[in-house]
Design a protein that fits this description.
alpha/beta, 6-stranded antiparallel sheet, 5-stranded parallel sheet, 10 helices, 24% strand, elongated
């Protein structure tokens, strides 16, 4: 059976995680770490005393390098995963930041929507910009919004649907740049028509680069419309799993990795606000135990 790290190292890890949580995750009153058979199980205690399982760290023999596994609330287990660095191991602080971004924010959503909570997050009429790599759950989320009657089907402006309408499922356009130009022109036309009428336009595409977002945010500003960004940011392991389950042939796993890397560099909340977004909200997904319908219920469109 694998051995636990020495007591002195266990104490040091607990101290480091609690110090890091105090600096970066004010939602947490304390981080609990219990060691068993070479693993460190990390829980977070909220200010109200509620305790959440977060992740499992595997002792590698080095103080600053731990194997990483996410807690899976759906089946009450842990799954080996990849940190935002793209590596399966890293510091304990990296692991806490990863699960903090995934679970603590989603938990706040769930509590807000629970009976007696503050209710769903309000999204005002205007531009709603979805930001996330392929396979991150954007289309399923939009379908859930439509099925629940939260938005009209006509409100959704999908670049993929426009591409299919213009070029079919197997486009033969000789010049990809010319094809993209036609798609963006039609997308912009539809967004303009919605915003000019005072209606919501949901821009469904990856939008992970500043350039892609700037064009749409500029349109919103032209009509003095609100620009709300909804972020879809599952960890890389979950993203690749969702991609494999979809069975898409037009997007490879390498493409998904590349999109995720661009988003990690260029789609943080602070940057999105700096680009002109009036509000930025993270959309919970499978990792947080939320179905598309449950994720949709976290928002109210006016």
């Amino acid at each position: 059976m694998p051995k636990n790290p020495p007591e002195s190292m266990q104490h040091h890890v607990r101290q480091r995680l609690n110090a890091h949580a105090a600096e970066r995750w004010p939602q947490l009153a304390r981080v609990h770490v219990r060691f068993r058979a070479g693993f460190a199980y990390v829980d977070g205690e909220l200010k109200d005393g509620e305790r959440l399982r977060l992740c499992r760290l595997r002792f590698t023999g080095a103080l600053h390098t731990w194997g990483f596994a996410l807690y899976q609330p759906g089946n009450d287990s842990y799954r080996d995963d990849i940190l935002p660095s793209g590596l399966p191991a890293g510091s304990a602080e990296e692991a806490l930041d990863c699960v903090g971004g995934l679970y603590l924010k989603a938990h706040a959503y769930l509590k807000a929507h629970a009976p007696g909570g503050s209710g769903p997050t309000r999204v005002p009429a205007g531009l709603v910009l979805l930001v996330g790599p392929p396979a991150s759950g954007k289309t399923s989320f939009v379908r859930a919004l439509i099925a629940r009657g939260q938005i009209d089907e006509d409100a959704v402006v999908s670049s993929d649907e426009i591409r299919a309408a213009l070029f079919g499922t197997s486009p033969t356009e000789a010049d990809p740049d010319a094809a993209d130009a036609r798609i963006f022109e039609e997308r912009d036309r539809r967004v303009v028509a919605r915003l000019a009428a005072g209606q919501t336009a949901v821009a469904e595409s990856t939008n992970v680069t500043p350039q892609a977002r700037a064009r749409l945010i500029a349109i919103a500003m032209r009509f003095n419309a609100s620009a709300t960004i909804l972020r879809f940011a599952p960890d890389l392991g979950a993203l690749l799993q969702q991609h494999a389950e979809q069975g898409r042939t037009d997007i490879t796993a390498a493409d998904v990795r590349a999109y995720a890397a661009v988003m990690a560099r260029h789609a943080g909340a602070d940057q999105l606000h700096a680009e002109g977004a009036n509000a930025v909200h993270d959309v919970p997904g499978r990792q947080q135990g939320a179905t598309p319908a449950e994720a949709a219920a976290h928002f109210s469109f006016t």
